Amino acid sequence: MVNTILKAEINHLARELALLSGYVFSEGYDFFSSNSPRAQYFKSLAERAFEVIQGVTLDA
User: Structure pTM?
Assistant: First the structure.
């Protein structure tokens, strides 16, 4: 289970990655509860980027 702070960080990172790609998601958008393939794509990119930046693995 992802804690609240980590979830917020990944949501923010996903939103920033989407913006760099030309997609705009609202500030309160929750990538964790979305069924949109595009949102899931940016969430997975954000999780991987977080792992690389922090040097950790986010295994469930």
Answer: 0.85
Q: Match 């030309």 to its residue by tokens.
A: 22
Band (43; pLDDT cuts 50, 70, 90): very high
State how far the Cα of 49 lies from the Cα of 26, in Å rounded to an integer.
21
Q: Decide if 26 is inside a domain.
A: yes
Domain that holds residue 9: 1-30
In SS3 terms, the chain reads as CCCHHHHHHHHHHHHHHHHHCCCCCCCCCCCCCCCCHHHHHHHHHHHHHHHHHHCCCCCC
